[in-house]
Specification:
Number of domains: 1
Strand content: 25-35%
Number of strands: 8
Distance between the termini: 35 Å
CATH superfamily: YbaK/aminoacyl-tRNA synthetase-associated domain
Helix content: 25-40%
Largest sheet: 8 strands, mixed
């Protein structure tokens, strides 16, 4: 495999002095966390999805979720005090995050978006999340995420 890319996400981690590992894998369109977990030989539960969503007014937000779980949008809306939450269309998500779908990292987004992370993510010793490029994950202690960005913990996994 080639050298890991330098992205907004990795620049933020380096500037904050956060220890992380770089993991390249062969990206498959629509493969999601199942493919990245398989390619890296890690549990899909530790591969974290970065989902760009919006509330009923179109206000964007990011949800972090275990790769093998889904988000209860109804419960997320209830916990954050809005009427409804739904995933953004890919082109809208890209406008908000600055990342192509399949490469979205919660770090270094184009716009500062509120971030809601499934609380059980922070019980894990190590997680893998998108490093800002397709086929590129970074591995780190999930508690370090809270050192570089404000994460609102929620319990919305299904």
């Amino acid at each position: 495999m080639s050298k890991a890319p330098s992205t907004n996400a990795t620049r933020i981690l380096k500037q904050a002095g956060i220890a992380y590992t770089e993991h390249l894998y062969r990206f498959e369109e629509h493969g999601g966390t199942r493919v990245s977990a398989r390619e890296l030989g890690v549990d899909e539960h530790a591969v974290i999805k970065t989902l760009v969503m919006e509330d009923e007014r179109g206000a964007p937000l990011i949800t972090l979720m275990h790769g093998d779980r889904d988000v209860s949008t109804k419960e997320l809306a209830r916990q954050i005090g809005v009427r409804s939450v739904q995933p953004c269309q890919p082109e809208v998500a890209q406008r908000h995050s600055g990342y192509r779908v399949g490469s979205t990292s919660p770090l270094g987004t184009k716009k500062l978006l509120p971030i809601y992370g499934e609380a059980t993510i922070f019980d894990l010793g190590r997680v893998y999340l998108n490093g800002g490029s397709r086929g590129f994950l970074v591995g780190l202690d999930p508690k370090d995420l809270e050192k570089v960005m404000k994460v609102n913990r929620v319990s919305v996994a299904i």
